Amino acid sequence: MSHDRMAVLGAMVIQGVVPVFYHSDTEVCLNVIQACANGGAKCVEFTNRGDFAPQVFLEVSRHFASFDKSVILGVGSIIDAPTAGIYIAYGAKFVVGPGLNVDVAKICNRRKISYHPGCGSATEISQAEEWGCEIVKVFPGDSVGGPDFVKNVLGPMPWSKIMPTGGVDTSEESLKKWFGAGIVACGIGSNLITKELLATKDYGGIENKVRDTVALIQRIRGA
């Protein structure tokens, strides 16, 4: 199954939540990502944070290329083009960063890979869009002004598509505020894939939590 940029963007919007996850153990990563996919979030962000993280990602990417091609793996915490290039070569279908970097934007555009840079102002969001970013990450979501920031940006820039990470949790109250403000999707890490579920390797619990969150977002959008 081919996942071009348009398919990736569409999947993000449809599922509404992009699980954000990293673990140094490949087996844990495989189980968590499969649980997310089974729960309805096939688009998952692998965070580039640990030692030898690219090698772990390569093993995970190879696995899903063989056993479940419906899974869409992306990479997060990318701040420079060389690292983005490594992950793209290893199969990343989208690239997420904490900040905005023109060289990352260029390498992603050249390979038709969607880039979601972390932005904290209307100026940065506008710059990202000029560089070809369709869905812009707002980061850290709670620190830059939360849902009110999104509303204030979309007033003069209604074409912007915003995906906050940081400050979004799985509660109905939180999701209603963010989606009510006009976001198209959100990234959620430890509030979705909790330490408790990971500690007990409760992959069924992770699948259920993801499924419940996707369903809640659908209900909120429907209302």
Bin the strand percentage: 15-25%
Identify the CATH homologous superfamily: Aldolase class I
Largest sheet, described in full?
Answer: 4 strands, parallel
| The top level CATH class name | Alpha Beta
Strand order of the largest sheet: 3-2-1-8
Radius of gyration: 16 Å
Structural domain tally = 1
Mean pLDDT metric: 97
3D architecture notes:
The chain is α/β, with parallel strands linked by helices and 223 residues long. The protein has one domain (5-218): Aldolase class I (TIM Barrel), CATH 3.20.20.70. Helix content is 49%, strand content 16%. The protein contains 10 helices and 8 strands. It is globular. The relative contact order is 0.16.
Blueprint (SSEs and pairs):
Blueprint: H1 5-15, E1 17-21, H2 26-38, E2 43-47, H3 53-67, E3 72-76, H4 81-89, E4 94-97, H5 102-110, E5 114-119, H6 122-130, E6 135-138, H7 146-154, E7 161-164, H8 172-181, E8 186-188, H9 195-199, H10 203-222
Parallel strand pairs: 1-2, 1-8, 2-3, 4-5, 5-6, 6-7
Give a quick precis of the structure.
The chain is an alpha/beta fold.
